[in-house]
Amino acid sequence: MGSEEVKLLGLWVSPFVRRVEWALKLKGVEYEYVEEDIFDKSPLLLELNPVHKKVPVLVHAGKVVLESFLILEYLDETWKQYPLLPQDPYDRAMARFWAKFAEEELLYVSWIALCSQGDEKERNFKLSIEAMEKIEGELKGKKFFGGETIGYLDLVMGWISYWLPVWEEVGSMKILDPQNFPSTTAWMNNFLSHPVIKDNLPPRDKMIVYFQKRSKEIGSLMASTRKG
Ligand SMILES: N[C@@H](CCC(=O)N[C@@H](CS)C(=O)NCC(=O)O)C(=O)O
């Protein structure tokens, strides 16, 4: 690899990878994309991310950066064009707070709601709605989280606009009801109509098939660990 080259190891259906790709494209950074098979991991992935063995993995000038939130921050500090995080330290701290909140209390919780059944599904579904209410409050009166343009928090929560509706369909649940969440619904439309976003989304029909299979696999795994 040449000295300044950027390489991204990813997976087509991963919301964590996609947020990094959006950031690279918004900033106009050239990169080489390498598709990984997470069910048959390449020696390169195992070498670059021996700790978690997950994508995304960013390699810049021979240095490896892991974890999508940290990759976004690294990109923002390295390529100053199209700033993602707010300039003010307090606003930056708040953006990180909401990013963590959305990841832990909405993404992972709605994923469990998708994969589980019965009481567990119901409990995680309710928790997802509660988290969505908090996010709705944050978006009130705003086009994007950061104001007039797409920023760090929009990229972090971008999955809500496109992955969540697929999870809702596959999991027969409705979290993002437009009547209850008008600001989030408006944000979702603004986000999805941005050219960089709308041209960089995985095919929906393939996602449905992928998540039908994946949610069943994870669901049985969760059920068997509970029994064991
Ligand atoms: N917290 C990580 C999550 C990354 C992640 O879970 N990646 C999944 C793909 S969606 C993966 O590589 N899974 C492989 C595995 O779990 O073995 C991030 O934000 O980068």
> Do you know the CATH architecture of the largest domain?
Up-down Bundle
Helix content: 55-70%
Sheet with the most strands? 4 strands, mixed
From N to C, what is the helix and strand string? EHEHEEHHHHHHHH
Tell me the radius of gyration. 18 Å
The figure for the number of domains is 2
Give the total of beta strands. Answer: 4
Question: What is the count of DSSP helices, taking H or I runs of 4+ residues?
Answer: 10
Family: Belongs to the GST superfamily. HSP26 family.
GO cellular component, one term: cytoplasm
EC number: 2.5.1.18
Catalytic activity: RX + glutathione = an S-substituted glutathione + a halide anion + H(+)
Keywords:
2 domains; 59% helix; four-stranded mixed β-sheet; alpha+beta; 10 helices; 4 strands; binds glutathione; Glutaredoxin; 228 residues; Glutathione S-transferase Yfyf (Class Pi), Chain A, domain 2
Description:
α7 (159-170) crosses α10 (204-227). This protein is α+β, with helices and mostly antiparallel strands and 228 residues long. Helices cover 59% and strands 7% of the residues. A four-stranded mixed sheet has the order 2-1-3-4, covered by helices on one side. The chain starts with 5 loop residues before the first strand and ends with a helix. The chain folds into two domains: 6-78, 3-Layer(aba) Sandwich (Glutaredoxin); 89-227, Glutathione S-transferase Yfyf (Class Pi), Chain A, domain 2. The model has no long low-confidence stretch (mean pLDDT 96). The radius of gyration is 18 Å and the shape is globular. The structure holds glutathione. Glutathione (GSH) binds next to loops.
